[in-house]
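Title: Prediction job returns without error message
Component: structure pipeline
Severity: low
Priority: P3
Assignee: unassigned

Description:
Job completed but the reporter wants confirmation the result is attached to the right record. Sequence as submitted:
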Amino acid sequence: MTTPSAAVMRAAMVLEVTSGSRRDRKGAERDRGPKRRGYAAADIPLYLLIDRLEGKATIFFEPRGDDYAHIVSVALGEDLPIPAPLEGVLPTRDF
């Protein structure tokens, strides 16, 4: 039997999708700022933000302290490269 402490798993990525509503700009601002910094501080390797208000997909990677060292953004509809540890390509044309 595995004990909870022996079965600790880390998240490889967190995904947030902003509301498409202009009325929820504050929620989108939280996703772009405080949440991003919190995930980096928690050492989550990848943070994927689908920002429907801005019309783009952004991957933040390589957490360093309370932010990410690297950021790649594409317009929704383009392919977004996903770095290690997941490595791949995310098509965003249906977002």
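Comment from assignee: result matches the submitted record. Strands lie at 13-17, 46-51, 56-64, 67-75, 79-82, 88-91.
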